[in-house]
Every structure is written in structure tokens, then in C-alpha cells.
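Limitations

Structures in this collection are predictions, not experimental determinations, and the ligand pose is part of the prediction. Treat each record accordingly. The example that follows, with magnesium ion as the small molecule, is included so readers can see exactly what is and is not provided: the inputs are given verbatim, and the output is the predicted complex.
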Amino acid sequence: MSSIVKVENLVKYYGTEGNIVKAVDHTDLEIERGKFTAIIGRSGSGKSTLLHLLGGLDVPDSGKVFIEEKDMYALRGDALAAFRREKIGFIFQDFNLIPSLTVWENVVLPLGLAGKKVKENDVSDVLKNIGIDDKKNALPSTLSGGQKQRCAIARALVSSPAIILADEPTGNLDSQTEREVMGILKKCVRDYGQTLIMITHDEGIAQMADVVVMIEDGKVVK
Ligand SMILES: Nc1ncnc2c1ncn2[C@@H]1O[C@H](COP(=O)(O)OP(=O)(O)O)[C@@H](O)[C@H]1O
Ligand SMILES: [Mg+2]
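Predicted complex:
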């Protein structure tokens, strides 16, 4: 198997002595390239903390995360941020759009941060694929939940990341919109060979996954 993500003995605790929360507790994990992996587990089991660590959004207490064989946390600061922007797209449950920017501006923001040229045709293609191109000049506050999540997905995809990390991306959506958003994400895996790692508490979504990883008390149990 070819793994795109490899986690070795990863640890992240919160709190102080006497009141320690073992959010990620000596965890090992390998994620296969080009597959859809679902991460499941009850609330508070450490799923989001693990996903943030996979994506370079947090710093572990100890242990390693390899992304395409690169020891990610050997990088720090700007180098880590640049690596993350190159390899990883994030999609959050609450969309994390910037309210004062239009859809287009939100979507191209990571390209700007990465110092990449915005290729307007490529961005337009992504927006069309995702079905949000008619809203490109709209502000997030004027969008439905599904449209907001499409915008957030477009933002994650526009730099063609190898890995898409999603934290309950359909948690705030109705079931019809959820199906549409899942269709877009599955297409990324099937047609573009991207690797999707998604936290979900939805049985139906977990059943769509190629691999299911179960987390309990900060550890991978299955
Ligand atoms: N920034 C933080 N500060 C303190 N405790 C945290 C922080 N983030 C998460 N935790 C705690 O770590 C545990 C795991 O949280 P989380 O990774 O969000 O779990 P899940 O996503 O599975 O619900 C929980 O007990 C949570 O309260
Ligand atoms: Mg969570």
C-alpha cells in the first residue's frame, strides 16, 4: 500500500497537571493515497485534534506526521505554512469564509497567500464544477449553507492539493445539500485522484468511504 500520510506515536494533550485531556494519545495511522478515509468516533474522542495535526494546523507535543514522506513538523513557521498550502486543502463544518470578501475573493485567497498567480480560467472552472460560479460576486452572508460550503470547497480545491481534510463538512447542511456536497468530494477522489480524509458522525457517509478509522480516547482503535 502506498501511504500519503503516516502518523507515528503522535501525542497532543491539553490542560495542566491534574487536569490533562489526552486529545491524541500515542497514535499511529497510515492513510492510503487516492482513497476516501472516514474518521469516526464519539464527540470529544480527539478527531478534530488529530485532523488539525494531520494538516499542520496545530503542533503536536511529540510524535511525527509524514506527508508524502516529508516530516511535516520538522518544518516550522513560514516553511510549515507554505508546505501546508501546497499539499493540503481544509474544509470545516462552519465554512470559515471571510465575511467581507466575495466568493471569488475567498476562493483565490490561498493562492494569494501562497504568492501564486491567479489563473482566472482555472478558478472559473473550479467554480463551475462545484456549481457556485453564478455567485462569484456575492458576499457569504447572502448565500445558503450549501452555497457557503461549495465556496469553501472551491477554496480548498483551487490549489489542487493532494490531500483534502474535512471536519464534518456536511454537519450544518440539509440532507439534499449533504448529498450534493458528498458528490463533489467523491468526484475529487474518483476523477482527480485526491486523497480525502473526512471526520463524520454520519453512518451513511462513513459507508461511502473506502476506509473507516475509528478513534476512541485519542487512539485509533480500528
Ligand atoms: N484547544 C483546546 N484546549 C483544551 N482542550 C481542548 C482543546 N481542543 C480540544 N480539547 C479537548 O480535547 C478533547 C478532544 O477534542 P476534539 O479533538 O475536538 O474531539 P472531537 O473532534 O472528536 O469531538 C476534548 O476533550 C476537548 O475538550
Ligand atoms: Mg470535532
